[in-house]
């Protein structure tokens, strides 16, 4: 049974600009093997009209966080604690009826795989129109006309004809555009995009990213963009949150984090990325080891078993003490600011050239 409580010590939203404020979010799943700590004390803000990028390896808690914002976690096996405040409305304690009024209306989600997210039994137009009818009370004809309008906005050719097609009659890129149309049909204030371009080729991916930016300018929506691709984030986001083992390990503006990263995990992500026009003779530097078990996460800093720089920290701080993530531009690491800067300049920057 889901437990919905406010965590002790959860901080208040930082200011009036935060449209979505998440504080000390903890999401745990009960399994036969034990309790999975999928999200473990996560806090962040999203401002109106801005895009927050969330990056991290598979299993870092990115998708679970945003499914929880929408209230789509499994109510029979999950425990949720903390604060989620959307435009002044507390969501952790909201009823299912209250969440149904918000989903697709005030907040919407673009799922990673449109082929599985869209039903094969209904036309694309009917599926796009459904949330518009539900939230506005529009007639079926009015909703279909609105669906045609949205298909036009997302660049589907011959929208008056294609509105009556089924998902299997659309290409992968067109299905993703249809998902965007469905998400935006009620002009949501917050759009969550969960790796929306992962299965698309590079050309279509660029078109979808440009489309999202154009529609954000038109509708003024805040966006949470989830991905493992830092190249995509550099194109899309204003602010960046780096997640590892269900926690935020670094945050700041995209420019700050990508130009001067401060956490060893972020260094590892950047060092393992291929670069167009880069030195092709240099081998990529993968992060050693495996992501930690969320059933039994390591003590102290969750990244310390894989960190090449833990020996720079005196004593046993890395293995015994959990580093905290301060407000604003910050990284949760026991290295001093001077050590981080020295390591980045001497050892990390040469790898990125």
Please describe what this structure looks like:
The protein is 35% helix and 22% strand. It is α/β, with parallel strands linked by helices. The chain has a domain at 267-275 and 283-352. The strands form two sheets. Strands 7-8-9-4-10-11-12 form a seven-stranded mixed beta sheet, sandwiched between helices.
Main beta sheet: 7 strands, mixed
Give, in spatial order, the strands making up the sheet with the most strands.
Answer: 7-8-9-4-10-11-12
Instruction: Give the H and E element order.
Output: EEEEHEEHEHHHHHEHEHEEHHHEH
Q: Count of helices? A: 13
Instruction: State the end-to-end CA separation.
Output: 51 Å
Structural class by sheet pairing and helices: alpha/beta
How many strand segments?
A: 12
Strand content: 15-25%
Helix content: 25-40%
The whole-angstrom Rg is 21 Å
pLDDT under 50 segments (min length 5)?
A: 1-16
Mean pLDDT: 87
Oligomer: single chain
Q: Per the principal axes of the C-alpha atoms, what is the gross shape?
A: globular
Subcellular location: Cell membrane
InterPro entries: AAA+_ATPase, ABC_Ni/Peptide_Import, ABC_transporter-like_ATP-bd, ABC_transporter-like_CS, Oligopep_ABC_C, P-loop_NTPase
Pfam families: ABC_tran, oligo_HPY
Keywords: ATP-binding, Cell membrane, Membrane, Nucleotide-binding, Transport
